[in-house]
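Minutes, project check-in

Agenda point 3 was the complex the collaborators sent over. CS summarized: two entities, 810 residues total, and the question is how they sit relative to each other. Sequences were read into the notes so everyone works from the same version.
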Amino acid sequence: MSPRAAVRRPPRGHWLVLLLVLLVVAVALLFEGWTTHQVDAARTKPPCTRPIPREADDGKPLLTFGPKGVATAGMPPGTAALTFDGGPDPVWTPRLLDLLRRHHARATFFVYGKDAARHPELTRRILHEGHEIGSYTYSGGDFGVASPLRAKLELSLTQSALAGAAGVNTTLLRLPHTTAADTLCGPQWPAAKRAAEQGYLVVASDRKARKPWRGVVTQHSQTDLGYHEAEDLLRDRRVKRFTTVSGGLGRPSFVAQVPLAQEIKGEGLIWTQRLGRTFLTVMVWTLTLAGVLGVLRMLLFALFARLHVRRLRRYRPGAPRLREVRDPVTVLVPAYNEEAGIAATVYSLLASTHPHFQVIVIDDGSTDATADIAESVADADPRVTVIRQPNGGKPSALNTGLAHARYDIVVMVDADTIFEPEALARLVQPLAHPAVGAVSGNTKVGNRRSLMGKWQHLEYVLGFNLDRRMFEVLECMPTVPGAIGAFRRDALMGVGGVSDETLAEDTDLTMALWRAGWRVVYEESAVAWTEVPSTVRQLWRQRYRWCYGTLQAMWKHRRAVVEVGPAGRFGRRVLLYVTLFQIVLPLCAPVVDMFALFGALFRDPVEAALVWFGFLSVQLVTAAYALRLDRERLRVLWVLPLQQFVYRQLMYLVVIHSVTTALLGTRLKWHSMKRTGTADPYLLEAPPEEARQSLQGS
Amino acid sequence: MQGTPHIASTPHDGRWSPVPPARGEQHPARRPRAAEPRLPVFIDESGLRRRTLQGVALLVGCACVGYLLFVGAVVSGLREPVGTRPPSTNGPAPADRPDTDRSAPSAGGPRQ
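CS then shared the predicted structure for the full assembly.
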């Protein structure tokens, strides 16, 4: 297809991929949790309530469950069948094998399926040196308490693991947590019976007191202790033969080759287990890192905000006292279909205390009465000028306004923003310093009655009082918001006006100013009230545009990282910060949530709750500090815990969506279609009237 | 703190003074707006990136589906037990049992 025609919908396929990846994560987590007994646990041995049947209680260790009851067997005199439980263990199994080889002895290893899969080479070595392998179940789950599903899986997964590791199966089974035959008491007995029905010979051990020369099945752990027990036993001269269980019985081996299909399946199991484990290890590290970074970020916020406040209050001899800026100001108000708000915006500007200013409303080809309303205001006040232009997008409207600006200081205002009377005068004060090229004001949310409004209110307060103060202290302010920002006109001209290469023209412009050598600062006392999206759909579109635009701006100015001087410092700091905290962490967030859910459901819920509340309280404290700095009520903090459930997910999904769109390089509708005016191209419908009124009332 | 914000919020006056604010003016109108319409950032005209990424996504998706299918197969295939009856143990100790040959594992008895 021709590239020109390649205007597409926003991508959608990545949601499917994300879903699949999350599903895989869930399965891997569940499997890993199952093997570590966090899911469907069977760890503890149940108390013995009933002895084993009398017919089986003759002390002989080999139990054959048949239709006619249980038959027992033991080793003939002079024969000792050494058995080792657990493993294969990378430390002790090789030592034991060496020991056995020195004594020309054979033994039986009851191995965990999960460990056999983990160390296939050890499993193969055990077999290669003539020993026998039995099943000690997959994870060591106690059969007396295991659910039927777990019992079945424990056995068959072990067979799969053995098939994958060494191409064999085994019909020997030792139940975890059992020793001599009479320890198969209580619920263990029926469990052993059920297991035996699947074709297993149940191997217990002889009692410790029995003299080895009388013929025994011994039981040792794969530890230092087991090693020494085995060593002592192997020195016993009265024992004629040390052999495997089958060898002692004079039977063919209980270990047999499996067909290729099973071997392949087992191989697959081994790989699944390996992949799952690696993945989980990586994820745990990522999670830890993410958690530490998150907390660190909050603490840094608090620290820098504190530093910023101290700087504002401290008397510093040696700093030149700057003059008060009373220079005339041009205010640019680009407007597209803003008939509901434009009058309020312009009136609020006209009520400013700044001595001398001009307001230019640029109507960007509105299809409603925006221009007419603005003109009626202009007729009443000579300070207001209205310029109409065909629809060309916000950057173009701003450039048009810039061409008509009469004064050297330019303030840009969104047409849905209400200025406080003091705001204009305060906003331009930092421009007294000759190095400052732009000033960011403080935006507050007007329509904060609804939950959405409250969430965004909190977000704005945090963003403007923590992020921005930190950026200010670190000298890396990445954005002068379109809602309230003051610029030096020659600085704007120097960077070629407002660019329309990105969707976040404010971020783009700010970065361009930094790179041109200007400083951008924050003036927290210049307050403007803005209106925020009130539905999830609108919010999604707004954030999509912001996030995508920020990505564009960052990419466009990526060379700032290697520049020297303030531009390079800005680039390194801001690009690192934004990449880490606004792209990488949100991209990891779905998996983080998955882990949190898993932890709460299957691991210790108390632990999960503690971690969660720990994070939350750090957030609460910093948010409370931000609210206090902004002189806002603390009452709104109650929405912060709720924010974790819908808002947070929305925010990170937006990042995923934006990153995908950026990577695909898709030409979206908003790139080629007519550009819209102010705040958001998708907020095409007029904002609800009641929200507007609440805005004006506040 | 609100009294003289213009002083307060420019805390680095000393360090900052060498930066020539006029630098921006050295290349005024470097880019006359609206004259040369630039392509927005990230737009890939050739569609190469799109196709590559779609391929990668397809690969990742297939890997995920494969993994899930495999796990499903492993779990569902686990129903088959290693045998239907325990192997016989009749060796030297107890009396002989008639089913010796049947359950000899080397003959493939306990296998599937």
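Noted in discussion: The mean pLDDT of chain B is 57.
Follow-up: revisit at the next meeting once the mutant set is ready.
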